[in-house]
Design goal:
Layout lengths: L5 H7 L12 H12 L6 E5 L6 E2 L6 H10 L5 E5 L7 H11 L7 E5 L2 H11 L8 E5 L8 H11 L7 E5 L4 H15 L5 E3 L7 H10 L8 E3 L9 H13 L4 E5 L7 H7 L6 E5 L8 H11 L8 E3 L7 H10 L8 E3 L11 H11 L5 H5 L14 H4 L4 H12 L4 H9 L16 H11 L6 E3 L6 E3 L5 H18 L2 H5 L5 H57 L1
Parallel strand pairs: 1-2, 1-3, 3-4, 4-5, 5-6, 6-7, 7-8, 8-9, 9-10, 10-11, 11-12
Antiparallel strand pairs: 13-14
Helix pairs in contact: 3-4, 4-5, 5-6, 6-7, 7-8, 8-9, 9-10, 10-11, 11-12, 12-13, 13-16, 18-19
Length: 554
Protein backbone atom coordinates (compact mmCIF):
# COMPACT_ATOMS: atom_id res chain seq x y z
CA UNK A 1 0.00 0.00 0.00
CA UNK A 2 1.40 3.40 -1.06
CA UNK A 3 2.27 5.99 1.56
CA UNK A 4 -0.56 8.52 1.84
CA UNK A 5 0.09 11.96 3.23
CA UNK A 6 -2.22 14.79 4.21
CA UNK A 7 -2.31 16.18 0.68
CA UNK A 8 -3.69 12.86 -0.60
CA UNK A 9 -6.57 12.85 1.88
CA UNK A 10 -7.25 16.54 1.32
CA UNK A 11 -7.45 16.09 -2.47
CA UNK A 12 -9.82 13.11 -2.29
CA UNK A 13 -12.01 14.01 0.69
CA UNK A 14 -14.80 15.59 -1.39
CA UNK A 15 -15.30 12.52 -3.58
CA UNK A 16 -14.62 9.68 -1.16
CA UNK A 17 -17.49 7.29 -0.42
CA UNK A 18 -17.70 6.91 3.34
CA UNK A 19 -19.33 3.49 2.99
CA UNK A 20 -16.27 2.19 1.12
CA UNK A 21 -13.80 3.19 3.86
CA UNK A 22 -15.80 1.88 6.82
CA UNK A 23 -16.93 -1.54 7.99
CA UNK A 24 -20.45 -0.57 9.00
CA UNK A 25 -23.20 1.98 8.44
CA UNK A 26 -22.73 3.18 12.02
CA UNK A 27 -19.04 3.93 11.42
CA UNK A 28 -19.86 5.75 8.17
CA UNK A 29 -22.37 7.92 10.04
CA UNK A 30 -19.72 8.88 12.61
CA UNK A 31 -17.31 9.94 9.82
CA UNK A 32 -20.12 12.07 8.38
CA UNK A 33 -20.67 13.71 11.78
CA UNK A 34 -16.94 14.44 12.07
CA UNK A 35 -16.93 15.91 8.57
CA UNK A 36 -20.02 18.06 9.17
CA UNK A 37 -18.90 19.33 12.57
CA UNK A 38 -21.88 17.82 14.38
CA UNK A 39 -22.35 19.40 17.83
CA UNK A 40 -23.60 16.06 19.16
CA UNK A 41 -20.21 14.44 18.58
CA UNK A 42 -17.91 16.15 21.08
CA UNK A 43 -16.72 12.82 22.53
CA UNK A 44 -15.61 9.83 20.45
CA UNK A 45 -14.80 6.36 21.75
CA UNK A 46 -12.80 4.06 19.45
CA UNK A 47 -11.88 0.41 19.86
CA UNK A 48 -12.77 -3.14 18.93
CA UNK A 49 -15.26 -3.69 21.75
CA UNK A 50 -18.98 -4.01 21.10
CA UNK A 51 -19.92 -1.06 23.29
CA UNK A 52 -17.70 1.61 21.71
CA UNK A 53 -19.07 4.23 19.32
CA UNK A 54 -16.70 3.44 16.45
CA UNK A 55 -15.91 -0.27 16.47
CA UNK A 56 -12.80 -0.68 14.37
CA UNK A 57 -12.76 -3.79 12.21
CA UNK A 58 -11.84 -5.14 8.82
CA UNK A 59 -12.79 -2.57 6.23
CA UNK A 60 -12.17 0.51 8.35
CA UNK A 61 -9.47 2.71 6.85
CA UNK A 62 -7.56 4.16 9.82
CA UNK A 63 -5.92 6.79 7.64
CA UNK A 64 -9.26 8.28 6.67
CA UNK A 65 -10.49 7.97 10.26
CA UNK A 66 -7.48 9.95 11.48
CA UNK A 67 -7.99 12.53 8.74
CA UNK A 68 -11.63 13.21 9.66
CA UNK A 69 -10.76 13.34 13.37
CA UNK A 70 -8.04 15.88 12.62
CA UNK A 71 -10.42 18.00 10.51
CA UNK A 72 -13.25 18.01 13.06
CA UNK A 73 -13.86 21.36 14.76
CA UNK A 74 -16.29 20.05 17.40
CA UNK A 75 -14.53 16.94 18.74
CA UNK A 76 -13.09 17.69 22.20
CA UNK A 77 -12.44 14.29 23.78
CA UNK A 78 -10.98 11.19 22.10
CA UNK A 79 -10.83 7.79 23.81
CA UNK A 80 -8.84 5.03 22.04
CA UNK A 81 -9.33 1.56 23.52
CA UNK A 82 -6.72 -0.33 21.54
CA UNK A 83 -5.90 -0.63 17.84
CA UNK A 84 -6.70 -3.55 15.51
CA UNK A 85 -3.98 -6.19 15.81
CA UNK A 86 -3.93 -6.90 12.07
CA UNK A 87 -3.38 -3.31 10.96
CA UNK A 88 0.00 -2.48 9.45
CA UNK A 89 2.37 0.24 10.57
CA UNK A 90 1.39 2.51 7.66
CA UNK A 91 -2.25 2.55 8.73
CA UNK A 92 -1.29 3.30 12.33
CA UNK A 93 1.08 6.09 11.23
CA UNK A 94 -1.57 7.53 8.93
CA UNK A 95 -4.15 7.50 11.73
CA UNK A 96 -1.93 9.41 14.15
CA UNK A 97 -0.69 11.79 11.43
CA UNK A 98 -4.29 12.81 10.84
CA UNK A 99 -4.98 13.07 14.57
CA UNK A 100 -1.97 15.39 14.95
CA UNK A 101 -3.76 18.09 12.90
CA UNK A 102 -6.64 18.45 15.36
CA UNK A 103 -7.16 21.92 16.80
CA UNK A 104 -10.24 21.06 18.88
CA UNK A 105 -9.34 17.98 20.93
CA UNK A 106 -8.71 18.91 24.57
CA UNK A 107 -8.44 15.45 26.12
CA UNK A 108 -7.05 12.12 24.89
CA UNK A 109 -7.31 8.76 26.63
CA UNK A 110 -5.38 5.76 25.26
CA UNK A 111 -5.32 2.17 26.46
CA UNK A 112 -3.34 -0.85 25.25
CA UNK A 113 -1.87 0.67 22.11
CA UNK A 114 1.08 -1.70 22.02
CA UNK A 115 4.72 -0.72 21.51
CA UNK A 116 4.37 0.63 17.97
CA UNK A 117 1.08 2.39 18.59
CA UNK A 118 2.52 4.01 21.72
CA UNK A 119 5.58 5.22 19.83
CA UNK A 120 3.37 6.66 17.06
CA UNK A 121 1.21 8.44 19.64
CA UNK A 122 4.12 10.05 21.45
CA UNK A 123 5.60 11.09 18.11
CA UNK A 124 2.62 13.29 17.22
CA UNK A 125 1.32 14.44 20.61
CA UNK A 126 3.60 17.45 20.57
CA UNK A 127 1.48 18.96 17.79
CA UNK A 128 -1.58 19.14 20.06
CA UNK A 129 -0.58 22.24 22.01
CA UNK A 130 -4.20 22.80 23.07
CA UNK A 131 -4.26 19.50 25.00
CA UNK A 132 -5.39 19.79 28.64
CA UNK A 133 -5.88 16.16 29.62
CA UNK A 134 -3.92 12.98 28.83
CA UNK A 135 -4.60 9.45 30.04
CA UNK A 136 -2.36 6.56 29.04
CA UNK A 137 -2.53 3.01 30.38
CA UNK A 138 -2.09 -0.67 29.72
CA UNK A 139 1.47 -0.81 28.36
CA UNK A 140 4.21 -2.74 30.17
CA UNK A 141 7.35 -0.59 30.33
CA UNK A 142 9.25 -3.07 32.48
CA UNK A 143 11.85 -3.76 29.79
CA UNK A 144 11.42 -0.67 27.63
CA UNK A 145 11.38 2.79 29.19
CA UNK A 146 11.26 4.64 25.86
CA UNK A 147 7.61 5.60 26.37
CA UNK A 148 8.40 7.19 29.75
CA UNK A 149 11.32 9.14 28.33
CA UNK A 150 9.27 10.25 25.33
CA UNK A 151 6.43 11.50 27.52
CA UNK A 152 8.85 13.13 29.95
CA UNK A 153 10.52 14.98 27.07
CA UNK A 154 7.15 16.17 25.76
CA UNK A 155 6.13 17.43 29.19
CA UNK A 156 9.46 19.17 29.69
CA UNK A 157 9.24 20.90 26.29
CA UNK A 158 6.54 23.22 27.60
CA UNK A 159 4.23 22.52 24.63
CA UNK A 160 1.34 21.64 26.95
CA UNK A 161 -0.33 23.22 29.92
CA UNK A 162 -1.85 19.96 31.08
CA UNK A 163 -4.46 20.04 33.81
CA UNK A 164 -4.92 16.26 34.03
CA UNK A 165 -2.33 13.51 33.59
CA UNK A 166 -3.17 9.85 34.17
CA UNK A 167 -0.33 7.39 33.54
CA UNK A 168 -1.39 4.13 35.13
CA UNK A 169 -1.03 0.35 34.78
CA UNK A 170 2.20 0.77 32.83
CA UNK A 171 4.72 -0.76 35.29
CA UNK A 172 7.12 2.15 34.88
CA UNK A 173 9.01 1.42 38.11
CA UNK A 174 11.30 3.85 39.94
CA UNK A 175 13.25 4.57 36.73
CA UNK A 176 10.06 5.51 34.92
CA UNK A 177 9.13 8.01 37.62
CA UNK A 178 12.60 9.53 37.29
CA UNK A 179 12.06 9.83 33.51
CA UNK A 180 8.81 11.73 34.10
CA UNK A 181 10.06 13.93 36.93
CA UNK A 182 11.51 16.82 34.89
CA UNK A 183 8.36 16.97 32.80
CA UNK A 184 6.19 17.12 35.90
CA UNK A 185 8.19 20.08 37.15
CA UNK A 186 7.53 21.85 33.85
CA UNK A 187 3.73 21.42 33.84
CA UNK A 188 3.43 21.70 37.63
CA UNK A 189 1.80 25.17 37.81
CA UNK A 190 -1.15 24.07 35.60
CA UNK A 191 -1.52 20.47 36.78
CA UNK A 192 -4.63 19.75 38.87
CA UNK A 193 -4.89 15.94 38.63
CA UNK A 194 -2.06 13.38 38.62
CA UNK A 195 -2.69 9.65 38.50
CA UNK A 196 0.21 7.17 38.74
CA UNK A 197 -1.52 4.09 40.11
CA UNK A 198 -0.43 0.50 39.38
CA UNK A 199 3.05 1.44 38.22
CA UNK A 200 5.26 -0.80 40.36
CA UNK A 201 7.37 1.93 41.96
CA UNK A 202 8.40 2.15 45.59
CA UNK A 203 10.30 4.36 48.01
CA UNK A 204 12.88 5.64 45.49
CA UNK A 205 10.23 6.54 42.95
CA UNK A 206 8.12 8.21 45.64
CA UNK A 207 11.08 10.29 46.81
CA UNK A 208 11.71 11.42 43.22
CA UNK A 209 8.03 12.20 42.76
CA UNK A 210 7.81 14.31 45.93
CA UNK A 211 10.71 16.40 44.68
CA UNK A 212 8.98 16.84 41.31
CA UNK A 213 5.74 17.90 42.99
CA UNK A 214 7.33 21.02 44.43
CA UNK A 215 6.02 23.07 41.51
CA UNK A 216 2.56 21.47 41.51
CA UNK A 217 1.00 24.05 43.80
CA UNK A 218 -2.42 23.85 42.08
CA UNK A 219 -2.76 20.08 42.47
CA UNK A 220 -6.22 18.93 43.58
CA UNK A 221 -6.14 15.14 43.04
CA UNK A 222 -3.28 12.67 43.49
CA UNK A 223 -3.66 8.93 42.87
CA UNK A 224 -0.72 6.74 43.89
CA UNK A 225 -2.70 3.57 44.60
CA UNK A 226 -1.43 0.03 44.04
CA UNK A 227 2.26 0.82 44.31
CA UNK A 228 4.58 -0.57 47.00
CA UNK A 229 5.27 1.88 49.82
CA UNK A 230 5.85 -0.71 52.56
CA UNK A 231 9.40 0.63 53.06
CA UNK A 232 8.67 4.26 52.25
CA UNK A 233 7.99 5.73 55.69
CA UNK A 234 10.48 8.58 55.23
CA UNK A 235 9.18 9.32 51.75
CA UNK A 236 5.55 9.36 52.97
CA UNK A 237 6.59 11.83 55.65
CA UNK A 238 8.21 13.99 52.97
CA UNK A 239 4.95 13.98 51.02
CA UNK A 240 3.02 14.98 54.13
CA UNK A 241 5.54 17.75 54.82
CA UNK A 242 5.13 19.00 51.24
CA UNK A 243 1.36 19.21 51.69
CA UNK A 244 1.86 21.14 54.92
CA UNK A 245 4.53 23.53 53.67
CA UNK A 246 2.45 24.50 50.64
CA UNK A 247 -0.83 24.61 52.57
CA UNK A 248 -2.38 22.32 49.97
CA UNK A 249 -6.09 21.64 49.85
CA UNK A 250 -6.38 18.39 47.91
CA UNK A 251 -9.82 17.14 46.98
CA UNK A 252 -8.63 13.55 46.61
CA UNK A 253 -5.60 11.56 47.80
CA UNK A 254 -5.44 7.85 47.03
CA UNK A 255 -3.05 5.38 48.73
CA UNK A 256 -5.24 2.31 48.28
CA UNK A 257 -3.38 -1.06 48.46
CA UNK A 258 0.09 0.47 48.82
CA UNK A 259 1.38 -1.85 51.55
CA UNK A 260 1.37 1.00 54.08
CA UNK A 261 1.96 -0.12 57.69
CA UNK A 262 1.56 1.58 61.08
CA UNK A 263 4.76 3.61 60.69
CA UNK A 264 3.75 4.71 57.22
CA UNK A 265 0.31 5.77 58.42
CA UNK A 266 1.88 7.74 61.24
CA UNK A 267 3.94 9.58 58.63
CA UNK A 268 0.82 10.20 56.53
CA UNK A 269 -1.62 11.04 59.31
CA UNK A 270 -1.05 14.77 58.94
CA UNK A 271 -2.55 14.67 55.42
CA UNK A 272 -6.02 14.68 57.04
CA UNK A 273 -5.55 18.43 57.42
CA UNK A 274 -4.81 18.99 53.74
CA UNK A 275 -7.27 16.86 51.76
CA UNK A 276 -11.00 16.16 51.63
CA UNK A 277 -11.01 12.52 50.42
CA UNK A 278 -8.39 10.06 51.71
CA UNK A 279 -8.30 6.48 50.40
CA UNK A 280 -6.42 3.94 52.50
CA UNK A 281 -8.44 0.80 51.73
CA UNK A 282 -6.53 -2.43 51.22
CA UNK A 283 -3.57 -1.56 53.49
CA UNK A 284 -4.20 -4.56 55.73
CA UNK A 285 -0.90 -4.23 57.63
CA UNK A 286 -2.30 -1.27 59.54
CA UNK A 287 -3.39 -2.08 63.11
CA UNK A 288 -5.13 -0.15 65.87
CA UNK A 289 -1.76 1.43 66.70
CA UNK A 290 -1.54 3.08 63.29
CA UNK A 291 -5.21 4.06 63.35
CA UNK A 292 -4.49 5.87 66.61
CA UNK A 293 -2.26 8.36 64.78
CA UNK A 294 -5.00 8.93 62.22
CA UNK A 295 -7.55 9.34 65.02
CA UNK A 296 -5.49 12.13 66.57
CA UNK A 297 -5.48 14.01 63.25
CA UNK A 298 -9.26 13.62 63.01
CA UNK A 299 -9.63 15.38 66.35
CA UNK A 300 -7.58 18.37 65.17
CA UNK A 301 -9.58 21.57 64.69
CA UNK A 302 -7.74 22.01 61.37
CA UNK A 303 -8.93 18.64 60.00
CA UNK A 304 -10.54 19.12 56.54
CA UNK A 305 -11.22 15.46 55.80
CA UNK A 306 -14.76 14.73 54.57
CA UNK A 307 -14.46 11.15 53.29
CA UNK A 308 -12.18 8.42 54.68
CA UNK A 309 -12.03 4.97 53.06
CA UNK A 310 -10.69 2.12 55.21
CA UNK A 311 -12.20 -0.99 53.62
CA UNK A 312 -10.33 -4.31 53.32
CA UNK A 313 -8.18 -3.52 56.37
CA UNK A 314 -9.57 -6.14 58.76
CA UNK A 315 -10.47 -3.53 61.38
CA UNK A 316 -11.49 -5.10 64.68
CA UNK A 317 -13.09 -3.80 67.87
CA UNK A 318 -9.88 -2.16 69.09
CA UNK A 319 -9.51 -0.31 65.80
CA UNK A 320 -13.17 0.72 65.88
CA UNK A 321 -12.72 2.14 69.37
CA UNK A 322 -9.70 4.17 68.28
CA UNK A 323 -11.47 5.55 65.22
CA UNK A 324 -14.61 6.38 67.22
CA UNK A 325 -12.47 8.41 69.59
CA UNK A 326 -11.27 10.45 66.63
CA UNK A 327 -14.84 11.43 65.80
CA UNK A 328 -15.32 13.20 69.13
CA UNK A 329 -15.33 16.89 68.31
CA UNK A 330 -14.74 16.32 64.60
CA UNK A 331 -16.84 18.71 62.49
CA UNK A 332 -15.72 17.81 58.94
CA UNK A 333 -15.88 14.03 58.37
CA UNK A 334 -19.10 12.90 56.70
CA UNK A 335 -18.28 9.41 55.44
CA UNK A 336 -16.10 6.89 57.30
CA UNK A 337 -16.14 3.75 55.18
CA UNK A 338 -15.03 0.86 57.38
CA UNK A 339 -15.85 -1.78 54.79
CA UNK A 340 -16.33 -2.16 51.06
CA UNK A 341 -19.50 -3.64 49.62
CA UNK A 342 -19.83 -7.42 50.21
CA UNK A 343 -16.80 -7.43 52.51
CA UNK A 344 -16.77 -9.35 55.78
CA UNK A 345 -15.81 -7.30 58.80
CA UNK A 346 -14.45 -8.26 62.22
CA UNK A 347 -16.20 -5.53 64.26
CA UNK A 348 -18.63 -7.03 66.78
CA UNK A 349 -21.60 -5.47 68.59
CA UNK A 350 -19.21 -4.21 71.26
CA UNK A 351 -17.19 -2.32 68.66
CA UNK A 352 -20.26 -0.79 67.04
CA UNK A 353 -21.59 0.32 70.44
CA UNK A 354 -18.62 2.70 70.76
CA UNK A 355 -19.77 4.49 67.61
CA UNK A 356 -23.27 4.67 69.09
CA UNK A 357 -21.94 6.52 72.14
CA UNK A 358 -20.02 8.96 69.92
CA UNK A 359 -23.02 9.64 67.70
CA UNK A 360 -25.24 10.19 70.73
CA UNK A 361 -23.82 10.30 74.26
CA UNK A 362 -26.95 10.01 76.39
CA UNK A 363 -25.26 10.47 79.78
CA UNK A 364 -26.32 14.14 79.99
CA UNK A 365 -28.14 16.65 77.82
CA UNK A 366 -24.91 18.57 77.33
CA UNK A 367 -23.01 15.47 76.24
CA UNK A 368 -25.78 14.64 73.78
CA UNK A 369 -25.47 18.14 72.36
CA UNK A 370 -21.67 17.72 72.05
CA UNK A 371 -21.99 14.36 70.27
CA UNK A 372 -21.03 13.93 66.62
CA UNK A 373 -23.79 15.22 64.33
CA UNK A 374 -21.68 15.27 61.16
CA UNK A 375 -20.87 11.64 60.24
CA UNK A 376 -23.45 10.20 57.85
CA UNK A 377 -21.97 6.84 56.77
CA UNK A 378 -19.86 4.15 58.43
CA UNK A 379 -19.99 1.59 55.65
CA UNK A 380 -20.26 1.56 51.86
CA UNK A 381 -23.25 -0.79 51.74
CA UNK A 382 -26.94 -0.12 52.38
CA UNK A 383 -27.52 -3.56 53.88
CA UNK A 384 -24.57 -3.70 56.26
CA UNK A 385 -26.82 -3.37 59.32
CA UNK A 386 -28.61 -6.54 58.23
CA UNK A 387 -25.41 -8.52 57.73
CA UNK A 388 -23.62 -7.48 60.91
CA UNK A 389 -24.44 -6.83 64.54
CA UNK A 390 -25.19 -3.13 64.13
CA UNK A 391 -27.72 -1.54 66.49
CA UNK A 392 -30.71 0.14 64.91
CA UNK A 393 -30.02 3.31 66.86
CA UNK A 394 -26.68 3.73 65.03
CA UNK A 395 -28.51 3.58 61.72
CA UNK A 396 -31.07 6.08 63.04
CA UNK A 397 -28.42 8.55 64.22
CA UNK A 398 -26.56 8.35 60.91
CA UNK A 399 -29.77 9.00 59.00
CA UNK A 400 -30.57 11.97 61.22
CA UNK A 401 -27.13 13.43 60.54
CA UNK A 402 -27.63 12.92 56.81
CA UNK A 403 -31.26 13.89 56.25
CA UNK A 404 -31.78 16.53 58.96
CA UNK A 405 -28.35 17.89 59.95
CA UNK A 406 -29.76 21.19 61.24
CA UNK A 407 -32.06 19.35 63.66
CA UNK A 408 -29.90 16.30 64.50
CA UNK A 409 -28.71 17.55 67.91
CA UNK A 410 -32.20 18.69 69.00
CA UNK A 411 -33.81 15.44 67.88
CA UNK A 412 -31.26 13.34 69.75
CA UNK A 413 -31.85 15.37 72.92
CA UNK A 414 -35.63 15.01 72.70
CA UNK A 415 -35.37 11.29 71.87
CA UNK A 416 -33.15 10.41 74.82
CA UNK A 417 -34.11 12.91 77.52
CA UNK A 418 -37.85 12.87 78.18
CA UNK A 419 -37.36 15.08 81.23
CA UNK A 420 -35.13 18.07 80.54
CA UNK A 421 -33.40 19.00 83.80
CA UNK A 422 -33.29 22.81 84.04
CA UNK A 423 -31.37 22.95 87.33
CA UNK A 424 -27.93 23.48 85.69
CA UNK A 425 -29.25 26.68 84.08
CA UNK A 426 -30.55 28.26 87.30
CA UNK A 427 -27.19 29.84 88.09
CA UNK A 428 -27.80 32.27 85.22
CA UNK A 429 -31.19 33.19 86.58
CA UNK A 430 -33.83 34.80 84.41
CA UNK A 431 -31.25 35.68 81.75
CA UNK A 432 -31.53 32.09 80.56
CA UNK A 433 -35.32 32.01 80.28
CA UNK A 434 -35.59 33.59 76.78
CA UNK A 435 -32.86 31.24 75.57
CA UNK A 436 -34.76 28.23 76.87
CA UNK A 437 -37.97 29.40 75.21
CA UNK A 438 -36.09 30.01 71.96
CA UNK A 439 -34.53 26.53 72.06
CA UNK A 440 -37.90 24.85 72.42
CA UNK A 441 -39.30 26.92 69.57
CA UNK A 442 -36.41 25.85 67.31
CA UNK A 443 -36.90 22.21 68.34
CA UNK A 444 -40.62 22.18 67.55
CA UNK A 445 -40.11 21.02 63.90
CA UNK A 446 -38.56 17.80 65.28
CA UNK A 447 -42.10 16.58 66.04
CA UNK A 448 -42.93 16.48 62.31
CA UNK A 449 -39.63 15.19 60.85
CA UNK A 450 -39.46 11.80 59.16
CA UNK A 451 -36.61 9.67 57.81
CA UNK A 452 -36.57 7.06 55.06
CA UNK A 453 -35.42 3.51 55.49
CA UNK A 454 -32.28 2.66 53.53
CA UNK A 455 -33.05 1.58 49.96
CA UNK A 456 -36.78 2.05 50.58
CA UNK A 457 -39.60 4.53 50.08
CA UNK A 458 -40.98 3.77 53.55
CA UNK A 459 -40.59 6.60 56.06
CA UNK A 460 -41.11 6.89 59.80
CA UNK A 461 -41.40 9.69 62.32
CA UNK A 462 -38.23 10.67 64.16
CA UNK A 463 -40.11 11.42 67.40
CA UNK A 464 -42.88 9.02 68.26
CA UNK A 465 -44.97 11.53 70.18
CA UNK A 466 -47.80 13.95 69.28
CA UNK A 467 -47.37 17.71 69.42
CA UNK A 468 -49.46 17.90 72.60
CA UNK A 469 -46.93 15.74 74.44
CA UNK A 470 -44.12 17.98 73.20
CA UNK A 471 -45.95 21.08 74.43
CA UNK A 472 -46.46 19.43 77.80
CA UNK A 473 -42.72 18.78 78.05
CA UNK A 474 -42.02 22.41 77.19
CA UNK A 475 -44.41 23.78 79.82
CA UNK A 476 -43.12 21.37 82.47
CA UNK A 477 -39.50 22.38 81.84
CA UNK A 478 -40.26 26.11 81.87
CA UNK A 479 -42.43 25.80 85.00
CA UNK A 480 -39.65 23.95 86.84
CA UNK A 481 -37.17 26.59 85.71
CA UNK A 482 -39.23 29.51 86.99
CA UNK A 483 -40.01 27.67 90.24
CA UNK A 484 -36.29 27.07 90.72
CA UNK A 485 -35.17 30.68 90.28
CA UNK A 486 -34.15 32.05 93.73
CA UNK A 487 -36.61 34.58 95.24
CA UNK A 488 -33.94 37.22 95.80
CA UNK A 489 -33.20 37.14 92.05
CA UNK A 490 -36.82 37.94 91.26
CA UNK A 491 -36.84 40.79 93.85
CA UNK A 492 -33.73 42.42 92.36
CA UNK A 493 -34.97 42.71 88.84
CA UNK A 494 -33.25 46.10 88.34
CA UNK A 495 -29.87 44.44 88.86
CA UNK A 496 -30.40 41.92 86.06
CA UNK A 497 -29.23 43.02 82.66
CA UNK A 498 -31.90 41.05 80.90
CA UNK A 499 -34.78 42.40 82.99
CA UNK A 500 -33.41 45.92 82.69
CA UNK A 501 -33.52 45.49 78.94
CA UNK A 502 -37.18 44.60 79.22
CA UNK A 503 -38.07 47.60 81.48
CA UNK A 504 -38.39 49.99 78.54
CA UNK A 505 -40.61 47.53 76.73
CA UNK A 506 -42.78 47.10 79.81
CA UNK A 507 -43.01 50.90 80.22
CA UNK A 508 -44.02 51.25 76.60
CA UNK A 509 -46.74 48.66 77.06
CA UNK A 510 -48.00 50.42 80.21
CA UNK A 511 -48.02 53.78 78.44
CA UNK A 512 -49.94 52.28 75.57
CA UNK A 513 -52.45 50.78 77.98
CA UNK A 514 -52.85 54.19 79.67
CA UNK A 515 -53.49 55.83 76.32
CA UNK A 516 -56.02 53.18 75.40
CA UNK A 517 -57.83 53.67 78.70
CA UNK A 518 -58.07 57.42 78.09
CA UNK A 519 -59.31 56.79 74.58
CA UNK A 520 -61.90 54.36 75.86
CA UNK A 521 -63.00 56.89 78.51
CA UNK A 522 -63.33 59.60 75.88
CA UNK A 523 -65.32 57.31 73.65
CA UNK A 524 -67.56 56.37 76.54
CA UNK A 525 -68.12 60.04 77.39
CA UNK A 526 -69.01 60.74 73.77
CA UNK A 527 -71.42 57.84 73.81
CA UNK A 528 -73.11 59.15 77.00
CA UNK A 529 -73.42 62.65 75.52
CA UNK A 530 -74.87 61.24 72.33
CA UNK A 531 -77.34 59.12 74.29
CA UNK A 532 -78.43 62.19 76.30
CA UNK A 533 -79.07 64.20 73.15
CA UNK A 534 -81.02 61.35 71.63
CA UNK A 535 -83.09 61.05 74.80
CA UNK A 536 -83.91 64.79 74.80
CA UNK A 537 -84.81 64.66 71.11
CA UNK A 538 -87.02 61.66 71.72
CA UNK A 539 -88.71 63.55 74.58
CA UNK A 540 -89.51 66.55 72.32
CA UNK A 541 -90.84 64.23 69.63
CA UNK A 542 -93.05 62.48 72.17
CA UNK A 543 -94.40 65.89 73.34
CA UNK A 544 -95.23 66.93 69.78
CA UNK A 545 -96.89 63.59 69.10
CA UNK A 546 -99.01 63.97 72.21
CA UNK A 547 -100.14 67.46 71.16
CA UNK A 548 -101.16 66.12 67.73
CA UNK A 549 -103.28 63.38 69.33
CA UNK A 550 -105.11 65.87 71.53
CA UNK A 551 -105.83 68.06 68.52
CA UNK A 552 -107.30 65.13 66.65
CA UNK A 553 -109.49 64.16 69.61
CA UNK A 554 -110.94 67.68 69.86
Amino acid sequence: MERRDFNYYEANAADISLEKITSSEKNAKILRQLCDGDYNLSILLLGNQRWVQFRMGKGDDLGWLGYFIGRSVKLQQLDIRGLPADEGKQQIDAFFDGLARSQSIRSISCKQLGDYGSAALFRVLGNLSQLEGLSYSGTDFTRNRNGCFALGTLLESGVWKLKELYFYRNNIGDDGVAALASGLRSIGPSLKTLGLSNNSFGNEGLLTLVSALESCTSLEELDLSNNDFSLATAELRSLSDWLQSNQMDLKWLNFESCGINDEGLQALSGTARYCKDLHLAGNDSITALGLGHLSTSLQSVSCHLENLYLGRMNIRDDGAEVLARGLIGNKSLRCLHLRDADEDIAITRAGWSVFSAVLCDTSTVNNTYLSNHTVQELWNDYHAEEDFEIDEEIVLYLQLNQEHPQYAARCKILMNHTHLDMVPFLRWGLKCLPLAVGWFESAKPCTTLSIYEYDSEVSRQVLDEPEQVFQSRVLTALYEFVRGVPKNVLERRDELTLMAAYDDKIAMVEEENKRLRKENKRLLENVDERDEKIAQKNKRLCSILESVRKGLDD
